[in-house]
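Changelog-linked ticket: magnesium ion example.
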Amino acid sequence: MFWIRQIINGITQGSIYALMAIGYSLIFGKLLLVTFAFGEMVVFGVFVSYYLYAIVGLNLFLAIIIALPISWGLGMLVDKICYEKFRDEPRFLMLITTIGFGIFLKSFTQLIFGTGYRSYPNFIEGKIIVGGVRITYIQIFIILTTLLLLYGLNLFFKKTKLGVGIIALSNDLDAAKLVGINVNKSIKFGHSLGVVLGVFGGMMMVSYYNAIGASMGPILGLKAFTVVVFGGITSLPGAIIGGFTLGILENLSVATFGSGYKDIVAFVILILILVLRPSGLLGKKIDLF
Amino acid sequence: MFSNSKISNIIGNLKGIILENKLKIYLIILILALIFPFITNNQYYIYIGVLTLMYMILASSLNIIVGYTYQYLIGFAGFFAIGAYTTAIITTSFEVNFIFVFLISGIIASIFALLIGIPTSRLGGIFFAFATLGFGEIIRLIIINWDTLTRGTFGIPGIPRPKLFNFIINTNTNFYFFALLILLVQLFISYRVINSRVGRAWLSLKENSEAAKAMGIKIAKYRVLNLMYGTFWAGIGGAFYAYFTQYVSPDTFVLDEGFRIFAMVLVGGMGTLIGPIAGSGLLTILPELVREFARYQLIIYGVAILLIIHYRPQGLFGAKELAQAKVKDEK
Amino acid sequence: MATILKTDKVCKYFDGVKAVDKVSIEVEEGIILGIIGPNGAGKTTLFNVLTGMLAETEGKVIYKNKDITKLSPQDITNIGMSRTFQNIKLFDHLSAHENVKIGFHTKTKTGFIDAIFKTKTYNNDEQKVNEKGIKLLKRVGLAEKQEILGQNLSYGDKRRLEIARALAVEPDLLLVDEPTAGMNAKETRTIVELLDKLNDEGITVIIIEHDMGVIMNLCDEIVVLNDGNVISRGDPNYVQNDPAVREAYLGKGAS
Ligand SMILES: Nc1ncnc2c1ncn2[C@@H]1O[C@H](COP(=O)(O)OP(=O)(O)OP(=O)(O)O)[C@@H](O)[C@H]1O
Ligand SMILES: [Mg+2]
């Protein structure tokens, strides 16, 4: 029973990582925007919803619904500051600009919302017992929402003009330009979409663990990156598999070694992939630098 | 408001003056640095002087890695921590000559660099950045959790003062000159390494790794060597920190510490020896002058990085100009 | 004369594009071999495979009787094969002299200790790279420009500097990819003379070139590539009159 519960916890956690990783993979794998500020953007977006809920006093769902377009705007801002001017420049410049922005955003978040951890409410309370295993409603909510969003995204990339355009330009930029895809617009859109997915994943995560802190950004970024590298940078299904893998492994390691070293799991996976299979599980090899 | 071109004009002119009198200016700065502890009695100023010099050592060591091979080391604080804890653990258990302790601290940091450098050497850029971010955090987690060795969150107090024969390095002024000495030795050694076959190999793989391969330069080997060399000095910086504050705790070695040093390198200008010195001087002394600044320190550092990349990618004293300046010097 | 380089059915495919397809050639020591062919024929790809920059899909490369198929570019450089790039790859922010100095990497030994203490090895190495570096720059006509940054050189000078840097490796086999592209007639002549002279000194040369004047002037033997295949080979006279060659070029609308 204990282990089954750990696996369910892992799947829940994995759903969250999968969502964030899809966001990251979209930005990094599809649009080839090197980003170091992803985790910080996620934390900022989540804090906005926290602020609207706890300080302004809005209904939680309303707070979330308002925070998402704000996160979208943050995505636009980051594209403006960190990417737009550097699209045709060596890619390490994007790395530096996003490092700079990440430092700024993290400290900015700390300044406004404080450095300590805040408690974030559960979306839904309650639990059911199935065959002796306790499953909380929020776990069910998270898993279902993730599956639904993944299905929606799949449709978006297959059926809509914008979605098809984003995939097209990630496959062949020149060809995409030739068939009249507005590259700049598509990149901006895709980047913001990635940020919003990440923020939404972040909201579910802090709702699940009930805590948010302004300094969580870099480690979240590391985890999203690890998941994406694990699944294969360019592969969205890979990101999903990677997300579940990390979630489950983290929970099993906590169950085995205690929570002190939980954050090490992602790092160990990252190093193992770099050594054993740099192109990841499902990804194409891409030349990053 | 100044326009961009005006600002870069002013900086450009200033730079011209600085470059033409480079040696003279270095000499003046050195003399000022030497007499500084004698022109003030304020212990606090001297204390800030020591910290500034320590950051100069750290920024110079990160610069070797970031500036000469473009390896974006994010977890720099981890290596700083390894040096500091090595010193703390050794000196609180044994009586060992401090020179030896310094060397061991540097070498242990290098050994960790070797371990993290090998798996990351094939992939540059963001892989390296994230892998080292994770590394830095893990060092901190290990320090927190392995409390039989590190005393966990309590930290290790009571690190003894360094002693040479009968002389004990004790006062702020002592430490000030000690730090200055380390910095000068570091700069001297780095200068020699950079202007040799090894330094040229580093530059070549930063400039064009394809061409470097065609010249028979083993990229992975030189990346790892570079990382080991740079982190050796991070370890030395850590040892100095431990001796100076006599107390180490995991709170010091957070990611932010690494970001702070990263900002110093970028703002000052990476890829030159003088850039990070200027950067760390500026970014350590400025917050002291404007006390309001302290609260917003990292915000301003972040903005400074963004401004620099947009308007002066080479930093205030960046490599591009100095490469040309070097040509002038040789004539 | 002995064979210095031999390829055995070397292939390089990119996602279905057969850039180089079953190319088997033999290069005798001491000659100048020309490789010609229309754009996209696979010439540069062949160079990349020979120098280890790209892994071949299939086939074998033998250099000085040694199988070098699996060697890294660095190891291949180390045993005396050196190249220039069609799309120039200089160390842009370093001076011409420093560019050449880096070329001496495999011919010098200085390590950390030598550099820090300025040992004899360091002094010998520095003297060597300084003096020989200048000499090489003189050979390619860049003596006055030794302190100009790579990125600030003219196009022709960049190509010259690439040759000087490739020579610093002290190669036995030199591969040059379109060394006279973008040069005027006079500049082209100096390159032709230089290559000829290097060849006289014992360096085997393989040259990719679109300028037929250069090829006819310089080469002892010519290999013609088209769509990744060798369609003709022989001495300049033979190749010039080979109907297959004319067809390949005229068929593509080129001269
Ligand atoms: N890295 C690569 N990835 C995919 N295709 C490639 C790559 N490099 C070359 N090709 C393809 O291989 C074929 C041969 O190219 P290559 O550059 O070798 O031609 P070339 O004979 O040197 O032409 P040119 O005279 O224009 O220099 C071309 O169709 C090219 O598009
Ligand atoms: Mg070519």
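Closing comment: Example verified and attached. The CA atoms of residues 314 and 321 of chain B lie 8 Å apart. Chain B is about 75% helix and 0% strand.
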